[in-house]
Design brief:
InterPro entries: 6-phosphogluconolactonase_DevB (IPR005900), 6PGL (IPR039104), Glc/Gal-6P_isomerase (IPR006148), NagB/RpiA_transferase-like (IPR037171). This protein is an alpha/beta fold. Helices cover 28% and strands 16% of the residues. The radius of gyration is 17 Å and the shape is globular. The chain binds 6-phosphogluconic acid.
Length: 276
């Protein structure tokens, strides 16, 4: 039985640039706090314009070097199923703007599989699920590797995600989970392959909603008036199958980090007012 999710907080920012810079500042501070407490920290990255801009803002921040990046674990919420190093790959974009500049430990960086390594997205998804289970076992000593369960969502069958970043598409998709499609309905798998993504490229690998919701904190980082409808519906409590952005719920907290354009249709009763 999964624990009830934590509270939702909405922070509205005046512009894309301020959103990226403040989200970067929050991430640096969060990783520092977790490292002080636990010696290491784990973040799940997202692709997309705002997601990558946030990573660039991290490396541009004077506080960037305060984090011991060699003790940060990096996972991805989704990935385009493209050859390693393809410029459209979420991992390649993250490496270009951040990971190749901050002294990460390669053993702690976990990109999703590519067509160079796997025959199809389902095989890449199964491999990622196994990587997650291996990491979980390492966090829960005593779990024998041959007993790893990558099919059931058992809350301690996943590594601890301190912060999981998500963008939102204009259609309300998150990661590579799209409205009314199979992936958003999956409840008994950690990771899924997607081969008919409405957002190009068509083939992708994605964490499932239950895996996303195993995170301590989920941060929805959203900019632009084209997302206002999806943000408004999600915060108004839409059904996640129709509006996947309504589904994410961190175990401790769900942060909506949005700019004014994306906030245009936030239900009045939820609007906490003021820029962050
Ligand atoms: O692989 C991807 O494309 C992303 O993971 C995807 O979920 C993205 O975050 C949203 O589509 C928002 O993208 P934009 O910020 O570019 O609109």
């Amino acid at each position: 039985m999964s624990p009830a999710p934590g509270p939702v907080r909405i922070n509205i920012h005046p512009s894309f640039d301020v959103l990226a810079a403040t989200t970067a500042a929050r991430l640096i501070t969060k990783l520092l706090d977790v490292q002080n407490e636990r010696g290491e920290a784990t973040v799940v990255l997202t692709g997309g314009t705002v997601g990558i801009a946030t990573l660039k803002a991290v490396v541009d921040s004077p506080a960037c070097s305060a984090v011991d990046w060699s003790k940060v674990n990096f996972w991805w919420g989704d990935e385009r199923f493209l050859p390693v190093g393809d410029p459209e790959s979420n991992a390649k974009q993250a490496r270009d703007v951040l990971l190749d500049k901050i002294g990460v430990d390669p053993a702690r960086v976990h990109p999703m599989g590519s067509p160079d390594q796997f025959a199809d997205t389902q095989a890449a998804a199964a491999d990622y699920a196994r990587q997650l289970a291996v990491a979980a076992a390492a966090e829960h000593p005593g779990t024998e590797e041959e007993n790893l369960d990558t099919t059931a969502i058992v809350w301690n069958a996943l590594p601890r995600f301190d912060v999981l970043l998500l963008g939102i598409g204009p259609d309300g998709h998150i990661a590579s989970l799209f409205p009314e499609m199979a992936g958003i309905r999956v409840r008994n798998e950690l990771v899924v392959g997607v081969d008919n993504s409405p957002k190009p490229p068509p083939s992708r690998v994605s964490l499932t909603l239950p895996t996303i919701n195993s995170a301590q904190e989920v941060w929805m980082v959203v900019s632009g008036s084209d997302k206002a409808g999806a943000v408004g519906l999600a915060l108004a409590g839409a059904n996640p199958v129709q509006v996947p952005a309504a589904g994410p719920a961190g175990r401790v907290k769900t942060l909506w980090l949005i700019d004014q354009d994306a906030a245009a249709k936030v239900p009045e009763n939820l609007f906490l007012g003021g820029a962050s």
